[in-house]
Design goal:
The complex is a heterotrimer. By secondary structure, chain A is of the alpha/beta class. Chain A is 55% helix and 14% strand. In chain C, helix 1 packs across helix 14, helix 7 crosses helix 12 and helix 15 packs antiparallel against helix 16. The chains are: A alpha/beta, B alpha+beta, C alpha/beta. Chain B: Belongs to the PIGH family.
C-alpha cells in the first residue's frame, strides 16, 4: 500500500510538535492541517480538538508528531515515541526533518492497542509513503469543479475529500485570532495575521450597511413591482403584447434579477453566490454603459439630429418599397406573371404603403419628443436602450411585417391545396384519424374538379411565390437586424463578469483540478510531490457561470427554418401553431 | 534512473521517449517531438513574402506587404502557441493518479490530472485516424453509475502519436505500477 | 489442427461435423477440386481473409448472417478472418465479436439503401491500411449490391491480392438499373480469381450477367443453424390454422401478392389466421387490406422481429408462406421447414433447388396459383395427412450446415490462392477485351489511376510504417481462453495491449 500524506507548505519550518489532521476514510491518506507546539497538556489538546470538531463537522485527530530539531533540543526522540501511547490511533506518524536536508523522514508506527484492519494486513511490509505538499490558503479558498453540492459527506474522490476537509476546517484556523490560547498552532493564518484581522473587521462592518441599503431599495422596488406585475401585466392583451416587446421582457428579466440580488437570504451554496455576484457585476456594468450613452445623447443636441435623420429614412424605405412593388407589377426580372393576380396583389400592397406614408407624416412632429423621453430609459442600462431600439425598429417596419404575413398566408394556402390535390391525383388521401396517407377511390366528378383546381393553382403559384419570396427576404433582413441587437443584449445579460474576473485575478479560486510536480528525489527519503491548483479554463468558466437568459433567437434549427420558409409557415415572432393538421 | 529511447511516430518522424523513474510507483514518460526547424520557418516566411511581393509588384499597393508581415507574424505565433507541441508528459503515481500534460512550443502548458479511483484501466486501442488505422494508448474512465461500464476514453500522446512498439513499452510499465499499487 | 481448436468453444453453428452434401449442391464445386482436397490433407494452407461488404451487423438480413456464420466457421478452422464494412451511425471504428472476429467499421459515406458511394478511388487509403496491417492474403467480397465490395475487389487486384466474390442475389436484364449493375458486375468480376454463387439458378444468372467463364464459378449454398429452429408443436393452436409470413415488407418479397391472398382465403376458411412478422414500406398495403375486410382479429402484424424471436413466431403456425418475386437462395423457407411447418412458396429463382419436393409446395407467383397451392395444403392439414414436425425437422437438419459451407469455401480459397493475380498490363488487356470498348476504356483508365494512387500512397505512407495488427484470430491468435471473459463484457474497447504481453 502507498500511504499519502498531504502536508501544508506553511508547516515546513514549524517548530516541533503534534500533527493535527484527518485520516480520509476509505483512502489510505492523511491530511495534515496544523501543528501544535510544545508545551501542551494532552487533556487540553483533546478538549480543543473535540470543540473544533463540533464546529467544523470534520473528525479531527492527532496524526502523529513533527520534529524539527534545532540546536539544544536533541533529546526529544524518545519523548515523541511515548506520545503515541497518549493519543491512541491505529497508526502514528513520526515526521522529522533534518536541517541540512530538504526531504523529510517518516516512520509509521502501528499501534497494537486497536486491532489493525484486515485490509492493511501486511504491517511488516515496508509502507511506501508519498508526501504531497499543498498551499493551505489556496486549497481552502478554491472551489473544485465540477461542483457536487448534494453529498459532501461521502466522496468517492480522494482529492475532493482533501479539499472538503481543508475548506471545512476553517474554525481551526480562526480560533486563536485575537488572544493567545493555551495552545500554539502553526497553519496558514499564522503567517499573515494582521491582514486577516482587517478583513474580518471590514466584513463585520459591512453587514449592517448592506442590510440598510437592501431594505431601502427593496421597499421602493416592491411597491413598484406590486403595481406593475400584479395589476397591469396580468390583463390579457397587455400580457400578450408585452411578451412580444423586448423592452417589457427585459424589464421583467431585470426585476427578477433585482429580487435575487437584494434578497435578504444569505447565499448558501457556491453556485448561488456566484450567480448573485455575476448578476450584480453585470448590472453595474450595464448601468455605467447606459449612463455613458445618456451623457453622449444629451450633449450637443444629438437627439434632434437623430430625429431629423430617422423620419427621412422611414420615408425613404417606404418609397423604395413602392418602387419595388411597381417593379413587381410589371415583368420582374423578365418573368411573365399572371397579369390579373399580379395587379390585384400589387394594388393591395400599394394601398398599404400609402396608409403607412400618411401615418409617418402624421407622426413626424412628435418624433423628437418621443426620442427625448425614450432616451432617458438608457439610465436604466444599456440593455434597456438596446431593447427600446429593437422595439422602435419593429414598429417602424410594421408594414414589411404585414406584407410578409399576407404573402405567407397566400403561399401557404396554395402549397397545402396543391399537396392535397396531388394526393387526389395519385388516388390517395390524408387520413386525419390515423395521421397517414391512405389509398382512396374517387369519383370521376371529383377527379375532374380536382384536376381543374390543381391546374389553376399550379399556374397561379409562381406569382404568389414571387411576392412571398420578396417580402420574406425583406422580413428576414429586419429579423436579422433585431437578432443582432438581441444578441448584444444577451451578451451583456449573461456574461459572467465576476467569475471571469476571479479567474483572471485569483485563478486558484476556481479549480478545475490539481497538478503535481515532483519536488526532490533524494535517495532514502520518500517521494515528495507539490500539489498545485489547476485553474479552470476560460471557456469552461463561461460555460458554467453563464447566467441563463430568455433566449430571444429562434430555437429551431436552420433546416427547420428553411422547411418552414418553404412551406410558407410564419416564422418569428408569431409562432403559436404547434401541431400541424393537414 | 532515466532512460531515453528513440522511436518513430506513425508518419516515420523520429521521437524521443524519456522514462524518468522517481520511485518504484512513480514514473514519468516524456515523448518529445523534434523542435521547430528554423529552415522550415524561413522557407514558409520567404514564400509568403515573395508571394506578397509579387502581388505588390502587380497592384503597387503597400498594404499588401504590411499585411503579409502581420499575417506571417500572427500565423507563427498562433502556430507555436496552439499547434506545435514540444513534448507530452505522462506522470503516473501509483494509487494517486495519472497526470497528462502537453507543453507547446511557446511554453504554454495544459495539464489534466485523473485520479486513480476514476481510472478503470490503461489500454492500447485501435482507431481510424484520418485515412489510416492506428494504435493509441488510452485511459478508460469508470462510469460512476455502473461499475463495469466505461464513461469515456482519454487518449494519450495525442499529438505525437507514437508507433506500437513505443506504446507497448509505456503500457507495460503503466500496467506494472497499476498492478503493484491496486 | 483446426479441428482441435473446436474443443471448449461455444459456437453458434453447433451441428454434427459429419454432414451430407445438400441437395442443392451435390456436385463438386470446381472441376479440379479433388486436387485441392489432396493438398489440404497434407498441409492445409492458412489464409488471412478479409471479408468486405456493405452489409453487416447491426443491419439484419441474409448476407449479414452469411458473412458472420461463415467467418465463425473459418475461424474455427484456424484461419484468420477480419471483416470490413462501413460505419453504421454510432458504430464506427474497430470492434470485436465472438472468438476474436475483428470488424472494421470504416467511415465511408452511405449513399442509398446502406450502400456506400463509389468512385473506385477514395476508399483505397483505408482499405489499403486494413489489408496491409492485417497482412491479408484473400479478399472475399459479398453481394453485388454492395459498392464497397466492388471497390475492395478493385483495390485488392491493384495491390496484387487474390480475390473471391460471393453473389447473393438475382438480377433481371431488362431495366436500366440492372443494365448498369450488370455492366459494373462484368467489370468487377472479369479479373476476379473465383466467384461463388448460392444456387445453380444464381450461378446461371451471374454467368450470363457478367459474361464469365462458368469454370471459375462455384456453387455453395447458404445454410441455417438447425439448432436455432426446432419445432415445438405444443405452441400451436390446433383449433385453427395459422399461416406464418416472416419477411421484410418490400416489393421484392411479393407483399402485394400477399395482400391479394389474404381476403380471398379468409372468406373461404373461417378458421384461418395470418401471422406476419417484419417491417417495411409495404406494411400500409397489409394494413389497408386488414381494415377494408375487417380482419383485425385474424391478421396479426408483428412489426420488426429480432433474429432470436423468429423461431418463436414460426412455431406458432402450421403453414409457412413465402411470396418472393425474386430470390437467389431462400433461407426463410429452410427456417420454416426446420421448424416443422408446411412450406408454400413461389417458384422463382433458386427456390426450387432449396428443398426436396415433399417438403415444399411450389406455385406460380400469382394470386390464384398461390391460393390454389395454399388450399391444397390447408386441405391436407385438415385431413391430418401431413408428416409430424419432428420428421420434417430431422429431414431438414442435415441439409445445410455452416461447417459444410466453410469447408467448401476453404477449398475455393485454396484454389484462388494458387491462381495468379493479373499484373497491370494483362489486367488492362482483360478489361478492354472483356467489357466492351467504352466501359473497358473507362475502367482501364480508373485502374491506372488507382495504381498511380497506390504508388502515391506507398510513397506518402510506406508499408513499413503501418503497424502490423495483433492477430485476434488465426494461427497466431492471441485470443487465449483467459482473455475471453474480459472481452465479452465489452466489445467496445478491447484492451489489445494486454495480449501484446503474451506475444
Amino acid at each position: 500500500m502507498v500511504l499519502k500524506i498531504f502536508f501544508p507548505t506553511c508547516c515546513n519550518t514549524a517548530d516541533s510538535g503534534l500533527l493535527i489532521g484527518r485520516w480520509i476514510p476509505g483512502q489510505d491518506s492523511a491530511v495534515v492541517l496544523a501543528v501544535i507546539h510544545y508545551p501542551f497538556i494532552p487533556g487540553q489538546v483533546k478538549k480543543y480538538l473535540s470543540e473544533t470538531q463540533n464546529q467544523s463537522q470534520v473528525d479531527l485527530a492527532v496524526l502523529g508528531s513533527w520534529s524539527l530539531p534545532k540546536d539544544g533540543q536533541e533529546g526529544m526522540d524518545s519523548f515523541l515515541k511515548d506520545l503515541s501511547t497518549i493519543f491512541p490511533n491505529s497508526r502514528w506518524l513520526q515526521l522529522s526533518r533534518e536541517i541540512g536536508k530538504r526531504g523529510f523522514a517518516c516512520q509509521v508506527v502501528h499501534n497494537r492497542i486497536t486491532p489493525p484492519d484486515p485490509a492493511q494486513g501486511g504491517t511488516d511490509k515496508k509502507d511506501q509513503i508519498i508526501f504531497i505538499h499543498y498551499d493551505q490558503r489556496k486549497v481552502m479558498l478554491s472551489q473544485l469543479h465540477p461542483i457536487h453540492e448534494e453529498s459532501p459527506g461521502e466522496e468517492s474522490s480522494e482529492l475532493r475529500a482533501v479539499f472538503h476537509t481543508v475548506a471545512q476546517s476553517g474554525p481551526l484556523f480562526l480560533l486563536d485570532r485575537y488572544d493567545e490560547g493555551p495552545l500554539k498552532l502553526t497553519h496558514w493564518q499564522s503567517e499573515g495575521r494582521e491582514a486577516s484581522i482587517v478583513v474580518e473587521l471590514s466584513k463585520q462592518a459591512s453587514v449592517p450597511l448592506c442590510i440598510v441599503l437592501t431594505w431601502l431599495v427593496l421597499l421602493s422596488f416592491q411597491l413598484f413591482l406590486y403595481v406593475v406585475c400584479c395589476r397591469i401585466l396580468n390583463i390579457w392583451p397587455v400580457q400578450f403584447i408585452s411578451s412580444k416587446m423586448s423592452t417589457c421582457v427585459q424589464t421583467a428579466y431585470r426585476t427578477n434579477h433585482f429580487q435575487t440580488v437584494f434578497s435578504t437570504k444569505k447565499a448558501t451554496s457556491h453556485m448561488e453566490f456566484m450567480r448573485k455576484a455575476n448578476i450584480f457585476v453585470s448590472f453595474l456594468v450595464d448601468m455605467s454603459l447606459g449612463l455613458l450613452l445618456v451623457s453622449w445623447l444629451y450633449r450637443e443636441n444629438h437627439i434632434s439630429q437623430l430625429a431629423n435623420t430617422l423620419v427621412p429614412v422611414a420615408d425613404h424605405v417606404a418609397k423604395e418599397l413602392q418602387e419595388l412593388l411597381e417593379w413587381l407589377m410589371g415583368a420582374p426580372a423578365g418573368l411573365k406573371m399572371n397579369r390579373a393576380l399580379d395587379q390585384v396583389l400589387g394594388r393591395f400592397f400599394l394601398y398599404h404603403i400609402h396608409l403607412w406614408i400618411s401615418y409617418i407624416r402624421l407622426m413626424s412632429p412628435f418624433i423628437e419628443m418621443i426620442l427625448w423621453y425614450v432616451g432617458l430609459s438608457a439610465c436604466l442600462g444599456l440593455t434597456f436602450a438596446l431593447s427600446v431600439l429593437s422595439d422602435i425598429v419593429a414598429l417602424l417596419t410594421f408594414h414589411i411585417y404585414c406584407f410578409y404575413v399576407y404573402g405567407a398566408r397566400l403561399y401557404c394556402l396554395k402549397v397545402y391545396g396543391l399537396s392535397s390535390l396531388w394526393r387526389l391525383f395519385c388516388g390517395k388521401k390524408w387520413n386525419v384519424l390515423r395521421q397517414r396517407v391512405d389509398s382512396c377511390s374517387y369519383d370521376l366528378d371529383q377527379l375532374f374538379i380536382g384536376t381543374l383546381l390543381f391546374t389553376i393553382l399550379l399556374f397561379l403559384l409562381p406569382t404568389t411565390a414571387l411576392y412571398y419570396l420578396v417580402f420574406t427576404l425583406l422580413r428576414l433582413v429586419v429579423v436579422m437586424f433585431q437578432g443582432v441587437i438581441h444578441l448584444a443584449i444577451d451578451l451583456i445579460n449573461s456574461f459572467p463578469l465576476f467569475a471571469m474576473g476571479l479567474r483572471l485575478c485569483r485563478s486558484y479560486r476556481l479549480a478545475e483540478g490539481v497538478k503535481f510536480r515532483v519536488l526532490c528525489e533524494e535517495p532514502g527519503t520518500p517521494l515528495h510531490l507539490m500539489m498545485e491548483i489547476n485553474p479552470l479554463k476560460c471557456s469552461s468558466v463561461l460555460q458554467r457561470y453563464r447566467t441563463p437568459t430568455y433566449s430571444c433567437y429562434p430555437r429551431d434549427s436552420w433546416v427547420d427554418l428553411c422547411k418552414k420558409l418553404f412551406m410558407g409557415e410564419l416564422i418569428y415572432p408569431w409562432k403559436h401553431k404547434t401541431t400541424k393538421t393537414d | 534512473m532515466a532512460e531515453k529511447n528513440e522511436f518513430t511516430d506513425i508518419n516515420g518522424k523520429a521521437i524521443l521517449l524519456d522514462c524518468q523513474n522517481y520511485s518504484s510507483f512513480c514514473r514519468e514518460f516524456t515523448v518529445s517531438s523534434p523542435k521547430v526547424s528554423l529552415c522550415k520557418v524561413i522557407v514558409c516566411t520567404c514564400s509568403v513574402w515573395l508571394f506578397a511581393y509579387a502581388v505588390f509588384f502587380v497592384t503597387e499597393n503597400t498594404a499588401v506587404l504590411s499585411s503579409a508581415i502581420i499575417i506571417t507574424l500572427v500565423g507563427m505565433m498562433m502556430h507555436i502557441h496552439l499547434v506545435k507541441v514540444e513534448h507530452e508528459t505522462l506522470l503516473i503515481i501509483g494509487s494517486l493518479g495519472v497526470q497528462l500534460s502537453t507543453s507547446y512550443a511557446s511554453g504554454r502548458e495544459s495539464t489534466t490530472f485523473i485520479e486513480m479511483s476514476r481510472i478503470k484501466d490503461i489500454v492500447i486501442n485501435e482507431a481510424v485516424y484520418m485515412q489510416s488505422i492506428i494504435y493509441y494508448l488510452c485511459i478508460l474512465i469508470k462510469d460512476s453509475g455502473d461499475p463495469n461500464g466505461i464513461a469515456s476514453v482519454v487518449p494519450l500522446f495525442q499529438s505525437s502519436k507514437p508507433r506500437l512498439n513505443c506504446l507497448v513499452q509505456v503500457y507495460k510499465s503503466c500496467q506494472a505500477i497499476i498492478a503493484q499499487t491496486r | 489442427m483446426g479441428q482441435k481448436k473446436r474443443s471448449g468453444r461455444v459456437h453458434p453453428p453447433t451441428c454434427p461435423s459429419e454432414t451430407q452434401p445438400p441437395a442443392a449442391a451435390r456436385t463438386l464445386d470446381p472441376p479440379n477440386s479433388s486436387k485441392a482436397r489432396g493438398f489440404g490433407r497434407e498441409e492445409r494452407a492458412r489464409h488471412r481473409i478479409c471479408m468486405v461488404s456493405d452489409f453487416f451487423y447491426p443491419n439484419m438480413g441474409g448476407v449479414e448472417s452469411h458473412i458472420y456464420q461463415l467467418s465463425q466457421c473459418l475461424i474455427e478452422k484456424g484461419h484468420k478472418v477480419v471483416i470490413a464494412t462501413h460505419a453504421y451511425g454510432n458504430r464506427r471504428g474497430i470492434r470485436y465479436l465472438t472468438n476474436g472476429l475483428k470488424v472494421y467499421y470504416l467511415p465511408l459515406q452511405v449513399m442509398y439503401n446502406q450502400s456506400t458511394t463509389t468512385t473506385c478511388i477514395h476508399s483505397l487509403p483505408l482499405l489499403r491500411c486494413v489489408f496491409v496491417r492485417e497482412r491479408v492474403t484473400v479478399v472475399h467480397a459479398h453481394s453485388s449490391f454492395s459498392a464497397m465490395a466492388h471497390d475492395a475487389l478493385f483495390h485488392a487486384k491493384t495491390m496484387g491480392l487474390n480475390t473471391v466474390f460471393t453473389d447473393h442475389s438475382l438480377f433481371g436484364f431488362a431495366d436500366l438499373s440492372s443494365v448498369l449493375t450488370n455492366k459494373l458486375l462484368t467489370v468487377s468480376l472479369c479479373d476476379t480469381n473465383h466467384i461463388v454463387c448460392v444456387s445453380y439458378t444464381s450461378k446461371e444468372n451471374t454467368v450470363l450477367r457478367a459474361a464469365l467463364n462458368p469454370d471459375i464459378v462455384s456453387v455453395i449454398p447458404n445454410a441455417v443453424d438447425p439448432t436455432d429452429f426446432t419445432p415445438d408443436p405444443s405452441r400451436r393452436d390446433n383449433s385453427k390454422i395459422t399461416i406464418v409470413v416472416v419477411s421484410r415488407l418490400v416489393y421484392r418479397k411479393g407483399i402485394d401478392l400477399l395482400g391479394g391472398i389474404i381476403p380471398e382465403l379468409c372468406t373461404k376458411h373461417h378458421d384461418l389466421y395470418f401471422l406476419i412478422g417484419g417491417e417495411g414500406p409495404k406494411r400500409i398495403v397489409l394494413e389497408e387490406v386488414r381494415e377494408k375486410y375487417q380482419l383485425h382479429d385474424r391478421v396479426r402484424l408483428l412489426g420488426a422481429l429480432d433474429h432470436k424471436d423468429v423461431r418463436d413466431v414460426l412455431v406458432q403456425g402450421h403453414i409457412f408462406l413465402n411470396t418472393s418475386l425474386t430470390e437467389a437462395f431462400c433461407m426463410a423457407i429452410v427456417e420454416g421447414a426446420s421448424c416443422g411447418l408446411q412450406v408454400v412458396s413461389t417458384r422463382v429463382g433458386g427456390i426450387p433447388e432449396v428443398l426436396p419436393d415433399e417438403l415444399v409446395t411450389l406455385c406460380e407467383p400469382t394470386v390464384s396459383s398461390l391460393c390454389a397451392g395454399l388450399e391444397t395444403v390447408i386441405a391436407r392439414q385438415r385431413s391430418g395427412k401431413v408428416p409430424p414436425p419432428a420428421d420434417i425437422h430431422s429431414k431438414v437438419r442435415t441439409l445445410y450446415t455452416w461447417r459444410n459451407v466453410a469447408e467448401r469455401t476453404e477449398k475455393v480459397y485454396d484454389l484462388a490462392c494458387r491462381q495468379p493475380v493479373l499484373p497491370l498490363p494483362a489486367r488492362l488487356q482483360r478489361l478492354q477485351s472483356h467489357c466492351g470498348a467504352f466501359a473497358g476504356f473507362i475502367f482501364s483508365f480508373l485502374a491506372v489511376i488507382d495504381f498511380l494512387f497506390l504508388f502515391f500512397l506507398q510513397w506518402l505512407h510506406p508499408d513499413h510504417l503501418i503497424d502490423v495488427a495483433v492477430d485476434a484470430s488465426g494461427p497466431h491468435s492471441c485470443w487465449g481462453p483467459s482473455f475471453k471473459k474480459k472481452a465479452k463484457d465489452s466489445n467496445r474497447a478491447w484492451p489489445p495491449g494486454a495480449d501484446t504481453r503474451h506475444c
